[in-house]
Amino acid sequence: MAWTIEDSAELYGIPFWGKGLFEANKAGHLVMTPAGEGKGKVDLYNVVTELTERGVELPVLLRLPQVVEGRLDLMWSVFGKAIEENNYRGRYRGVYPIKVNQQRQVVEDLLRVGRRHHVGLEAGSKPELLVAMAMMDDPEGLIICNGYKDRRYIETALMASTLGRETVIVVEKLSEVDAIMAVADRLKITPKIGVRAKLSSPGKGRWQASAGDRAKFGLSALGIVELVEKLREMDRLECLSLLHFHIGSQVTSIRTFKRALREATRLYVELVSMGAPMGMMDVGGGIGIDYDGSRTTFESSRNYTEEEYAADVVMQVAAACDGANVPHPDIVTESGRATVAHCSVLLFDVLGVETLPTDGEPMSVDANSPELLVEMRDVYDGLTSRNYQEAWHDAQDARIRAKQSFELGVLSLVELAQVDRLFWQILGRLRNIVREQSYVPDELNSLEPALADTYYANFSVFQSAPDAWAIDQLFPIVPIHRLGEEPVRRGIIADLTCDSDGKISRFVDRRDVKKVLELHPLKKGKPYVLAMALVGAYQEILGDMHNLFGDTNAVHLSVGDDGHVNFDLVIEGDTVEDVTGYVQYDRKDLVQRIRTSSERAIRNGILGKKQAAKLLAFYREGLDGYTYLGH
Asked: Which of the four pLDDT bands, split at 50, 70 and 90, describes residue 562?
């Protein structure tokens, strides 16, 4: 049967991790619906064409604020529904942790589209707090102050409250209480404080150490009791208004939340019974993203929906409070990944492909051919689906002996190359046979990735997808065009850096992690563009400048009421001058060094004056240029 666009959608899992945000259209292009179904579509291939015409080079990071708006609407909707169904008498108040993506335009857009929900901000450091203090101008939005605190941090938090920002300073260590009260007394400001609980309930997944007895932040049950007694002695217990806990990022199982909530809600009602006024329950973040579309407890997925999460939070807080005859608190969440992960897509082009010589007609042999070459050809000719494992062993053995013969001077370099070519062609036939088998011996499971093509792509893993390198995070990768064609090649993706780790060789799959990605052969003179989706959380701020590849170009897109795609903002990526400046090189000094070298070359008769002028202009142009490759 002919390959269809639906086949590509299934192969790449677009309906599963895309969840209505991504789809393949009739032209075979990857399309986004940032404002929701029926409100206009963004054809990513057309976007690349438009950007090229505007002189914006790939790689490009697309940001779509309407996706953030949709994610915020979803959270308020599911909590609103849970509050109504449970007759809950507190409010839902969401805050965004700036650390997840601190880019000014992202925070600005989030506060703009989330203003009707009174979205707040969470800061985990003094610089983040200074940003939150300036960016937040909604008196109904919260500023949650987490992290380690010195005097200046505390002063900043208290000063923010004088601007009409509702600011809560969360105590992470008991020693912070004295500092908070001392600064508050000096400034004559009554602080609103919270306490972070170090839950004994274990987390789950990569960041499970965020909870438990050895967690980095928070107070144990003993510490919380000591905090209450300390505040009572200071006659400041009325300042304690919030209980906070956090069990990690990308929580994959709803049971992890359920266990934590049972313990945390008991802590909350106990604090009220001890005389603290309270009023807010901050359940932290941790909502996972289903990066692979499997809806499982796999580390790149989750086995619950936002609706189930909200229902569990509201029901458990309500049950604990009702059981203790305690007023329902406002529920605060700090969901960052779940808010912004979907809003960014990295687009990058493939520059070239390296393939192993597995195809083509095998070379002929005769009586004059080396014995090992004849032996290898016999393995090739005799290979069938019944003896493929034996053929694998024979081919390996013959190749090893060929290398030994070359080292001893028995085989020439040309003859060794001929043996090698036949070896790869045998492996190519083996791979095709193995693909048809229901059971494959373990030693042949690595055949597919071993023979995979290498697609060299115009981006840096370390800059644009650092989690793919550092923690093997999976991100969906899919061609943005040619989805109506069958992708007959199998490949991995290598970036521009001269680092062997600069590659992606693990890909999303609903059943397992794929070690190769189905891709199309390149067409001469035609671009081949891939999208890496769901990169809006953490990737930009964690990116580093390996080989001095800097920030990519970024473009903010929206769909108007008329369905037209608007290019709202184009942010130029780093130039060579920018990235060299980050590592303390000065443009004028660099240019002067080239000028000095040019003058020396002129004196020595190596370089002409006009050539020197062209060289200097070329060098300056290089400093002004994009750090990635052009065409």
From this structure: confident
Distance spanning both ends of the chain, measured CA to CA: 37
Res. 204 pLDDT band, cuts 50 70 90: low
Q: What's the confidence (pLDDT) of residue 117?
A: 97
> Once rounded to an integer, what is the mean pLDDT over residues 342-350?
97
Rg (CA), the chain: 30
- For strand 330-333 and strand 280-282, is the pairing parallel, antiparallel, or unpaired? parallel
The secondary element (H helix, E strand) that includes residue 161 is helix 151-162
Please, are residues 391 and 377 in contact by the beta-carbon 8 Å criterion?
Answer: no
β-pairing, 344-354 vs 60-63, is antiparallel
**pTM for the model:** 0.93
Cα separations in angstroms, 397 against 377, 401, 450: 13, 6, 18
Fold of 88-335: TIM Barrel (3.20.20)
DSSP H or E stretch at residue 78 = helix 65-85
Burial of residue 47 (number of CB atoms within 10 Å: 0-12, 13-18, 19+): buried
Residue pair 325/38 in contact by the 8 Å Cβ criterion = no
Question: CA–CA separation, 581 vs 550, rounded Å?
Answer: 11
Return d(Cα 120, Cα 122) in angstroms, integer. 7
CA 106/CA 65 separation, integer angstroms:
8
Give the count of beta carbons closer than 10 Å to the beta carbon of residue 563.
11
CB of 167 within 8 A of CB of 241? Answer: no
DSSP line for 29-68: -EEE-TT-TTS--EEHHHHHHHHHHTTPPSSEEEE-HHHH
| Cis bond upstream, residue 59 (ω within 30) | yes
Question: Ramachandran region of residue 356, left (φ > 0), alpha (ψ -120 to 50) or beta?
Answer: beta
**With the CA atoms of 598, 601, 602 and 605 taken in that order, what torsion angle do they form, in degrees rounded to the nearest 10?**
-160
Looking at the domain 371-448, which fold is it?
Answer: Methane Monooxygenase Hydroxylase; Chain G, domain 1 (1.20.58)
Separation between Cα atoms, residue 233 and residue 230, nearest integer Å: 5
Record the tokens describing residue 125, joined without a space.
């450091």
Spell out the alpha helix ranges (H) of 86-144. Answer: 104-113, 126-135
